Amino acid sequence: MAAPNPIQMQKFLSGVDYPCTRDKLVDHAQSQGAPEDVLDHLRRLPDREYDGPNAVSAEFTRT
To answer: What superkingdom does the record give (predicted)?
Structure first.
């Protein structure tokens, strides 16, 4: 299965407060109705604090 598009992923992270941990990103995306493929991909991000959407997108495309 192909990885979700980072733009699609960012749509579900709109409004999240940075800095933010991986788990909070997943929780926020889930509360915004993100599909399971986006949530699974977010869960595979390194467990660290992200300082903004660019940092999330960079890791998202590497994972």
So the answer is: Bacteria
